[in-house]
Amino acid sequence: MSQNHQQRLLGRISALFESGKYSDLTITNHERVYHVHRNVLCVASKFFAAICDGAFKLTAQQEAQSGKIDLSEDDPQALERMLVYLYTADYDDVDQSDAEGKDDAADAADAADTASTSAEDDYAFAQSPTELSTSPIGQKRKRCEEEIHQSREATASARLNNVLVYALADKYDIQALKELSRVKFEARLGEEWDGDDVLTLLKVIYQSTPSDDRELRGIILKVYSRHKDELMVNPRFPEILGTDGLLAFDVLRIFKDDLEEKASITQKLHEETEKLHMRNGALKKTIQAKNKEIEEKDMEMRTLKEELQDAQDWALEEQQALKEDIEERTNCRRCETPLTLVPQGYSTSKLVHMNVACPRCRV
Prior knowledge:
Helix content: over 70%
Distance between the termini: 137 Å
Number of helices: 17
Oligomer: single chain
Structural class: mainly alpha
Strand order of the largest sheet: 2-1-3
Largest sheet: 3 strands, mixed
Radius of gyration: 51 Å
């Protein structure tokens, strides 16, 4: 089936909801009356199917048989969004008045951007805050700020609307609508919000959803966990915790998990610190051993230098003594002939141990 054909089919079904034509069931919510169709409601909701099939409690069964069901206990806007979804497969989470405010805010922002020339003239003549606030650009800025504030409020209202639709979808067992409202709610959380908005959502979610349904609760608790330091100092925080015991329990569990995580991190840091201390201790010992080895090598070097110096001194002394001895031996040891030169063939070391003879006596 092509997309265009699907859109045309949805358009026809949606027209049935708007016109109420061929309606065989009436749903009332205070003063509002909706002329709906059993086949549309029953194929999407097990709750309405059980009522129409006579498998529900007597009061509801009698209401279905009479063709009228009173749902005045439900939130009017959430109920209307649920019925719109059943006929169109979607719903608008922004209230009509809020949507108009967002459009006005966008128009005001565009007007402020295109008023730069007149703004310069206004600032040139506005010499005080009072004059500036009453100038055209000042009034435009004020309107823009007010409409932006309305836009933020519209976003906060849309988040709350998705929560109420989710709760109603759970009540009437419309699983596809639950999933759609969850997706819309999670997407709206990515937009700008403040602490009061989150606290209100915590309260409403825990009051309107079953305790075993963790979808929206898990989403909003993640937001709380990321911004708990900011939210815990909010004056409304103790009041919100007091509205629901399970909410207080989950918040305390997050606080406990946070403490345990910090304790685990602290323990890991302590262990890493101990390892570093041990490594530092081993490194210090290694450095001390190397330093001691260097000192020993230095001592050996000093000893070797001293021994070398002693050997050099001894060699100088021996050389000087040999020189003196040679100078004293001026005669041949045999014939007493005066010698003027050291005989060839005798090294200096040999002259130390033997007397010198003249060439004639050596022959």
